[in-house]
Amino acid sequence: MSPISAQQSALNPDADSLTPAQRMAERAAIDRSCRTPCLVFFGTSMFWLMLGTILAIIASTKLHTPEFMVSLPFFGDVGLLTFGRIRPAHLNTVIYGWASTAALGVCVWLMARLCRVQVMNTWILVTAGALWNLGVFVGMLGILLGWSTGVEWLEMPTQAAFILFTSYALMSVWAILMFANRKPGHIFVSQWYIFGALFWFPWLYGCVQILLLLQPVEGSVQGIINWWFAHNVLGLWFTPIGLATAYYLIPKVTGKPIHSYYLSILGFWSLALFYSWNGGHHLVNGPVPAWIISVSIVASAMMIIPVVTVAINHHLTMKGSFHLLKTSPTLRFVVFGAMSYTLASLQGISMAFRISNEVTHFTHYTIGHSHVGMYLFFTMMMFGAMYYIMPRLVGWEWPSARLIKIHFWCTAVGGVVMIIALAGGGIEQGLKLVNIWLKEAPTEANPSGTPYSFMEILAGTLPWLWVRTMSGILIFIGHVAFGINFVLMLLRRGERRLTPTLLGEKSSSPKLEAVTA
Amino acid sequence: MNKLSTLFVGIFITFVSAWLGLVVIPYIQLGGLKPEKDEITGALMPPALSGSAQRGRLVYAANGCVYCHSQQVRGSARRLPEGEVPPDIARGWGARRTFPRDYLGERPHFLGTMRTGPDLANVGLRYTADWQHRHLYAPAAISRGSTMPPFRYLYKKQRIVGAGTPDALDFSLIPGVEPPEEGYEIVPTEQARDLVAYLLALRRSSYDLPEAAE
């Protein structure tokens, strides 16, 4: 066999000089070695997903029905249940509990697969996983009990952050050991992203812990650093992991290599260069130096490059394989996630300009945007990854195709409805708040027109917020279906299948997703 | 890109550039900012918070007011017609926009990202302490249609001794809410008093800054 070029190995996860039988044996051994740590990460992430969704529904309901769940029997009114604690508890549970934990599980598996070595030092991973969960638990409890730091995205008390950081440091040590032991000559596209993410996140997190909480800077500078962090958590932690997943799973399921090496390179480096400068656009028109905002707006606009290159690259890889979306659960979630990534990014770019930001900032539109990113993109991507990885860990296929379908349709429809409600409500709210949408148009006698009063604007958002709560319930139903399937699988219930569980008609190309692929 | 070293150097440099730009340089630029001294009275602008108001900041953080309230008066990016002021100012949220100096000493910052409720940068100029207590206790009774959560857990019921507590809630001004039974009163806890002291101290338009003259 001819030697494999760097380009080939970057594009094709199966570029090696093994015979199919050898390759199957190697993969089976690797998957087996991932079993314990990955199940620790995935299993606990499921718990946080459920809890996070319940907290979301409570918070969402409180926004239109403020007397909902304010008191406990015997205790009367309690601070623990107030909106201002439930909301950050939701955010921290889904960001650190669900999304990051699932991401770490996916990282472990992808690293083992792509370095082509079995997981060593499992104890490091299991310890890291246990600590991570302990950190999230302490942090969430701290927020509910009123010990929040008050800084958005970093509300967990510093004790919890310290535990999380220790856990992450263990993960990094493990990752370095894995990289050092990898089979030579291979760095697949996904590994660029994982490598970046594992380096960027601890720096970000460590830096803000020091500058915002341990030796805090003041006022406006805090705001700048706060949003530098919060934006980069998405851009330099979740986005790379999500894209690494897509870059690996799309070729795996379709059986084709990534379309273009140059697009992959351009997409990666432009993301690294521009995303990290975006944070300032959260403070447009705010009390910070104008140059910071200008630089961030320019960087946000430049995001068009990584977004469009990645979209084209994925689309051209998928071309000719779209029929697989009917049958493959993995592909359906992953492609949905990848398309949402494009949408989330284009939406983000459109919100970064001074004029558009004046309308959308401070409204539900922004909340909607973060859910396009964190839910429709990242969460759906993690679902796709778990559909692919879990059978290989457990040695058992997903018990029920119907539950997969319920999961997909409830989360997809629920997610889209939520985005529409928040975007629609947000635009109405924003246009009225800046007096573009007036109650009475200007007349000669009243040259600037009559703006809506604040209370009228508030009332206008309520129907949209009700729709959002409904969509949350739909999403919750989807998560419950997923949870049931997950537990049944761990219990090895349902019939024993030799081929993967597919959706729809059974005939079309089941082999591609077989457990050994 | 099959060399780990190349990859690492690139990942490092891209990140460091943004770190310098968005963390280090702003820190250097704004870190040395000092309060302005009023030439006549010698008063500091912005004034320092009292001890009670300082503690009130923590109550504000713990109960998540920041998820519904911003504290910044923005300018407008649009070209407004002659004589028209930016919408934040038109809504009565402040007489001028706010500047970095207005936020000196704030840890954590409460710039905020959401306006489910009105901006609070200058709320201390708008209401009395008694109004604030009544509003925190029963927002919907004070502002009809309000979705602000009630903060009744920051208040406590106690037996009236003597003439009663001066800042006990006056239920004749809280329409539709049951007063406590005969002989009892509802009074703010220490936390509620600190919180209101903080809210009353939010008066950024009450002093002028040189940068506001531009």
| Low-confidence spans of chain B | none
Count of alpha/pi helices of chain A = 15
Helix-strand sequence of chain B: HEEHHHHEEH
Q: Tell how many strands the DSSP assignment of chain B holds.
A: 4
Largest sheet of chain B: 2 strands, antiparallel
Order of helices and strands of chain A: HHEEHHHHHHHHHHHHH
Unreliable runs of chain A? 506-517
Distance between the termini of chain B: 51 Å
Beta percentage of chain B is 5-15%
Total helical segments of chain B: 6
Fraction of residues in helix of chain B:
25-40%
Computed structural class of chain A? mainly alpha
Query: In the CATH hierarchy, what is the architecture of chain B at level 2?
Result: Orthogonal Bundle
Structural class of chain B: mainly alpha
Largest sheet: number of strands, sense, barrel closure of chain A: 2 strands, antiparallel
Computed Rg of chain A: 23 Å
User: How many domain regions of chain B?
Assistant: 1
Characterization of the model:
Chain A is mainly alpha-helical. Chain A is globular. Chain A has helices at 6-11, 20-64, 83-115, 122-144, 158-180, 189-214, 219-254, 261-275, 290-302, 304-318, 329-351, 354-360, 364-394, 401-433, 454-490; strands at residues 71-72, 76-77. In chain A, a hairpin with a 3-residue loop joins strand 1 (71-72) and strand 2 (76-77). A two-stranded antiparallel sheet of chain A has the order 1-2. In chain B, strand 1 and strand 2 (44-45) form a beta hairpin. With 214 residues, chain B is mainly alpha-helical. Chain B is built from 6 helices and 4 strands, in the order H-E-E-H-H-H-H-E-E-H. In chain B, 32% of the residues lie in helices and 7% in strands. Chain B has helices spanning 4-31, 51-62, 87-90, 129-137, 139-142, 190-200, and strands at 36-37, 44-45, 155-159, 184-188. In chain B, the strands form 2 sheets. A two-stranded antiparallel sheet of chain B has the order 1-2. A two-stranded antiparallel sheet of chain B has the order 3-4. Chain B has a single domain, classed as Cytochrome Bc1 Complex, Chain D, domain 2, CATH 1.10.760. The longest helix of chain B is centred in the first third of the chain and has 28 residues, at 4-31. The chains are: A mainly alpha (517), B mainly alpha (214). At the A-B interface, helix 1, helix 2, strand 2, helix 3 and helix 6 of A face helix 1 and helix 2 of B.
